[in-house]
Amino acid sequence: MANITKKVSWSSRADESAAAGEATPLLNGSEQPQHSRQLSGGGSIFQIGRLSTVDLEEEITSEEDSLRGRPKEIPHNEKLLSLKYESLDYDNIENQLFLEEERRMSYMGFRCLEISRWVVCGLIGFLTGLIACFIDIVVEQLAGIKYQVVKENIEKFTEAGGLSISLILWAVLNFTFVMVGAIIVAFFEPIAAGSGIPQIKCYLNGVKIPRVVRLKTLVIKVCGVICSVVGGLAVGKEGPMIHSGAVVAAGVSQGRSTSLKRDFKIFEYFRRDTEKRDFVSAGAAAGVSAAFGAPVGGVLFSLEEGASFWNQMLTWRIFFASMISTFTLNFFLSIYHANPGDLSNPGLINFGRFEGDSVTYNLYEIPLFIAMGAIGGLLGALFNVLNYWLTIFRIRYVHRPCLQVMEAMLVAAVTATVSFTMIYFSNDCQPLGPESTEEYPLQLFCADGEYNSMATAFFNTPERSVRSLFHNQPGTYNPLTLGLFTLTYFFLACWTYGLAVSAGVFIPSLLIGAAWGRLCGILLASITSTSSVGAQHSSAIWADPGKYALIGAAAQLGGIVRMTLSLTVIMVEATGNVTYGLPIMLVLMTAKIVGDYFEEGLYDIHIKLQSVPFLHWEAPATSHWLTAREVMSSPVTCLNRIEKVGTIVDILSNTSTNHNGFPVVVQVPGSDEPAKLCGLILRSQLIVLLKHKVFVELARSRLTRRKLQLKDFRDAYPRFPPIQSIHVSQDERECMMELTEFMNPTPYTVPQETSLPRVFKLFRALGLRHLVVVDDENRVVGLVTRKDLARYHLGKHGLEELQLAQT
Asked: Which of 289, 311, 380, 659 is the most buried (most CB within 10 A)?
């Protein structure tokens, strides 16, 4: 995407205001400070008024003296848009080579392509299911060993005294696992931190996030999530599954691995952004499906959260990938659990079946559910606000890998200490009956035959804790236990999300919600049993706190991530009961409405904090008065249809203008009229042409030379070589290059009077990277790119304009 050095604004009267040194007001009326930048090429200084480009690197060096005494701070402002992100080409380049290939292909060829798309989707599902299975088994084994060792140690020291040794053992074990997980993420692949959902959301929106779908990222992600879950952090392994599925999809669909430098010579037709995007959305859906055992939920997640582009055949293929993913996971887990062929436990997280009395609910309970949804929205907004400020603090101060690892180790030690303290001081003892489902019951100071119920919540993997909150008998939890657990886990989960470890936010959210939901159920039961006459009858109705735990879990997760449709279906599929469909839907809608009033969803916050030029579904509501002339970048670097090689090399080598698209213009011979638009060519295409030395003179002299084909462009995709790596001799610089065959002769154009919403709709719906703005006579006047449109957004004071920053 074009990194524009100088933007001329139609409304700012061009250079007069700049010369006079006036600051042009921003759209919301506030005055904008000016930045003077030294241009590396010409050496002239000019003032940029309204649309200034800020270089954060310069700010740091100028402030170094004042910052020597304290930790070095990276200035950060979410009112910036980063120039480091490129766009993806979701629009096919219909040049002569492409059209010739398509016309040569028979009907049978197109049928074979369609079949290979299904094969790729099947492979994506299979491999994603295998990865989920691997993560699940390794986590279960390692966590089992850890909890067994700590449990034996605690039992040994409870009687003899010296429980502090048990605490140190637990903390050291957590500490070690998290340290390994944080080191591999912080030092080897920082993009693998977190759940990866915001990054995949950006990728599917059309933003090229560096290294997001590499094989190395997948390996670090899988190892990192195992370490962070076994290390006892307040995290889940479900979010990273979505990222893992997307990486698998991006790799499989290309038929080669650029990391391993292996090309299998298959699926070569799919080596372009459009095809890759569709497969990545299938991979994300397969990830959800493997995580929750919810194939329909996976498809809807991909539709709601991920894909910006959709069609009917894609839905069917994505559903196929999701189904295969769930089936693969079930099949291999059934072999692992020694009952091969039993496919009845789908998903990494299994909420268990809700059956019998627990599934009934009455009409008068619906207002209670809606109230719980509102509580979930409020708590979710609080979680997001706290996490927002914490993330800004991290961006400013905790930006060195060693500091990130130390923070993760600190969180691990604090989590273990808090958990141990809560268990130690809790006197909530429950009888250990034959129907008790405790995996690691801890007796501690309870009588024989009893176990500490606080330990069930903390001394377990988060998935097991959620299941016990849903399904344990009424009376297994003390209200005080649940209240304290909710409070501590809320802050631990908030602190943990955003650390330099691979971790999801789904399970912690469900666990917090299940705890306060169960607390609501217990309180309601106690209120009705004391206040009503028919105490026996009424407490039977309210008896099941598991129902309220489920509603609370949905409310909390909806309040944090703000998903509605897909989350309803995921919860219904994961509980295996459609009865709760309506309450869950109402709860999620309420949580979203209440939460959105205060703060955005967690993923949107993290996208904004990374200054990504993300395009939403619609243009800002009050932007009709802006036109293409005001938002476009100009002046534009154009190329002639037959251009000198030296000129092309100089333009591509110019670091101050890192343009990626160049309009191709043609001059009418024998007239002095300005050149008119005849096509558009990309930087990546020009680099391939220079690499293969497709010059007019060479073509004439060497008649036997092979004609450049579309395969040459596909082989260079996606990591096109930089211009610095291509050697062009002095003689070759004098040659000419004919661009007619390789340029896109039919680029999308708009007149300069087109309104911003119309430009936005065209750009967003077609997945464009460049939109050429022309005048009445088809002369190029400007170029609209993603950053030109993403700059405008609705803020608290109406329409605001973000600045572009070199971060």
From this structure: 289
Query: In whole angstroms, what is the distance from residue 192 CA to residue 185 CA?
Result: 6
- Cα–Cα nearest to 249, from 300, 222, 285, 220: 285
How far is residue 240 CA from its own chain's centroid? 10
- DSSP, res 632: S
pLDDT at 78: 67
Which residue type sits at 265? K
pTM check: above 0.90: no
**pLDDT band at 496; cut points 50, 70, 90:** very high
Q: What is the pLDDT of residues 370-387, one digit of tens each?
A: 999 999 999 999 999 999
> Is the distance from CB of 457 to CB of 469 less than 8 angstroms?
yes
Residues in the chain: 807
Cα dist from 782 to 10, 140, 284, 772, whole Å: 11, 58, 37, 6
Average pLDDT, the chain: 81
What whole-number distance in Å separates Cα of residue 368 and Cα of residue 373? Answer: 9
Two structure tokens written together for 478? 């003390």
Spatial distance between the Cα atoms of 25 and 44, rounded to a whole number of angstroms: 25
CA distance 606 to 608: 5
Q: Are 708 and 739 in contact (CB under 8 A)?
A: no
Is pLDDT at 18 greater than 60 in this prediction? no
Distance CA 419, CA 79 (A): 39
Instruction: Answer positive or negative: Cα dihedral of 127, 128, 132, 133.
Output: negative
**φ, ψ for residue 308, nearest 5 deg:** -90, -10
Kindly tell me if the per-residue pLDDT of 792 is higher than 50.
yes
β-strand pairing of 53-54 with 798-801: unpaired
Yes or no: say if 85 and 613 are a contact pair by the CB < 8 Å rule.
yes
pLDDT in tens, 238-257: 889 999 999 999 999 988 88
Q: Which domains does the chain have, with CATH numbers?
A: 118-337 (1.10.3080.10), 357-398+431-529+541-610 (1.10.3080.10), 628-805 (3.10.580.10)
- The candidate with the shortest Cα–Cα distance to 787, out of 804, 799, 763, is 804
All residues at 6 or more sequence positions from 130 whose CB lies less than 8 Å from its CB, including other chains: 328, 332
CA distance 211 to 190: 10
